[in-house]
Design goal:
This protein has helices at about 1-15, 30-35, 40-60, 70-80, 85-100, 105-115. By secondary structure, the chain is mostly helical. The protein has one domain. α4 (about 70-80) packs across α6 and α5 packs across α6. The chain starts with a helix and ends with a helix.
Length: about 120
């Protein structure tokens, strides 16, 4: 996993380097980052999460089903299955617009608790 992050970090910094996402240290992306980002940045973030989920699933191999209940991977993959990236962007935009008091809440938490988990 550390190797994957090392490989992805330069790409992420290139994509997000000139926006509100730029920082000395990699931060957990929250609603403040989300609402100030362009559509391309939002899509890139979601594609990145999707790629990591797919890689984790592939690396688990035959052990994937045995890990059910001990990982957020299943919840995110199953709960967001069939929902387009465009729809997820729209839902996240709406969530942060409707819940301005939760603007510091991490995007991954909103994806997990507000979008994926209720769909299971």
């Amino acid at each position: 996993m550390k190797k994957l992050l090392t490989l992805l970090l330069p790409v992420l910094l290139t994509v997000f380097g000139t926006s509100a996402w730029a920082a000395e240290d990699l931060e957990i992306v929250n609603g403040e980052h989300w609402v100030s980002s362009s559509l391309e940045q939002k899509r890139a973030y979601l594609f990145g999460i999707g790629n990591v989920l797919e890689i984790e699933q592939a690396m688990a191999g035959d052990d994937y089903e045995a890990r059910r209940g001990r990982s957020i991977i299943h919840v995110l993959l199953d709960g967001l299955s069939g929902i387009s990236i465009a729809n997820i962007v729209t839902q996240l935009d709406k969530f942060y617009a409707d819940h301005s008091d939760q603007i510091k809440r991490p995007v991954i938490e909103v994806l997990y608790l507000e979008m994926a988990l209720p769909n299971l």
